[in-house]
Design goal:
There is one protein chain. With 333 residues, the protein is mainly α. It has 14 helices and five strands. It binds iron/sulfur cluster (SF4).
């Protein structure tokens, strides 16, 4: 079985945008690949270095989210980045052979610094985070990494570093210690939040996988609609409505076309329309919530799953690092 690796930063609970994008994809990948999925807590620190107090809580939250949507710890290795110290050891060795210019030209370096101008990101850790990503991937000799188009330069950097390492220490650019990781290109669907902008925790417009049924409805009820539909008697245009965009993801087509027609002819009101969406969303979210309740009743389970996953990951990482130390010809004591 080919191996896949991917990680998520523990920056908050996961929402339905994650479910429709990366997370749903991770669940599907379990069918075909040997998957390693990790909580990228060191990566979170590259931008949240002064907010580390939330990391433990968010780690617990996102692992519950993972399990509730169907990630299976029997099939996939679920682990915590900071529990496998070999990632840091490999990062040190890679940092010795990586020209600074390779890191400075990664597009996200400038982009994120501009987007987060309120934060001082002129740090060694932030510049080096694509190198840490490289270490995360190649320490498991992963064949594939699921990425969106915007992440491709990171993977290209990882491949360049692999070639350099293989050539420098084994004399074989293509067949050395590390395989070159390839992309599994995944489209991240644009999921609207309750204010019509992209769903995001930072916009405070997200419907979370852990939300109660009441919380979901409290968010949907005031959700923004087609701005031209002011009165109940005004015909609306579903193509200009974020509520309808969510219908496209969750409501079966026949029911959805009834809703669209009702909207265009002012046959239904926006609250009726949102009630339909709410029912469809609940068909998806209620079972997730049940699984989460079960996890909440077993407070040590998440910790145990991570401990087991950490052990499995560490074993694999140690095997790689033994080969790496031999290749670099470090003194064996
Ligand atoms: S009826 Fe539905 S699709 Fe039409 S404007 Fe209202 S919420 Fe949007």
């Amino acid at each position: 079985m080919k191996r896949v690796l991917s990680g998520m930063r523990p920056t908050g609970p996961l929402h339905i945008g994650h479910y429709l994008g990366a997370l749903g994809n991770w669940v599907r990948l379990q069918e075909e690949y040997e998957c390693f999925y990790f909580v990228a807590d060191w990566h979170a620190l590259s931008t949240m270095y002064d907010e580390s107090g939330t990391l433990a809580e968010y780690t617990d939250e996102i692992v519950k989210d993972w399990l509730s949507v169907g990630l299976d710890p029997e099939r996939s290795t679920l682990f915590l980045q900071s529990a496998v110290l070999e990632h840091a050891e490999l990062l040190v060795l890679l940092s010795m052979i990586t020209p600074l210019s390779w890191l400075e030209r990664v597009p996200s370096y400038k982009e994120v610094r501009q987007q987060m101008a309120h934060k001082d990101l002129a740090t060694y850790g932030f510049l080096g985070y694509p190198l840490l990503q490289t270490a995360d991937i190649i320490i498991y000799r992963a064949h594939y990494v699921p990425v969106g188009i915007d992440q491709l330069p990171h993977l290209e950097l990882a491949r360049e570093i692999v070639r350099r390492f293989n050539f420098m220490y084994t004399g074989d650019e293509e067949g050395g210690i590390f395989p070159e990781p390839l992309e599994l290109l995944t489209e991240a669907p644009k999921v609207p939040g309750t204010d019509g902008r992209k769903m995001s925790k930072s916009y405070d417009n997200a419907i979370y996988l852990k939300d109660s049924a009441e919380e979901v409805w409290d968010k949907l009820r005031p959700m923004i609609t087609d701005p031209a539909r002011v009165r109940r008697t005004d015909p609306g245009d579903p193509d200009r409505c974020p509520v309808y965009e969510l219908h496209v993801f969750f409501t079966p087509e026949d029911h959805r076309s009834e809703v669209a027609e009702g909207c265009r002819k002012a046959g239904i009101g926006c609250i009726d329309c949102k009630k339909v969406l709410y029912a469809e969303l609940e068909r998806v979210l209620a079972p997730l919530r049940d699984r989460r309740d079960e996890l909440n009743r077993k407070p040590d389970l998440v910790k145990q799953i991570l401990t087991d996953g950490n052990d499995r990951a560490r074993e694999e990482a140690r095997r790689t690092m033994s080969d790496v130390r031999d290749a670099v010809k470090l003194y064996s004591s």
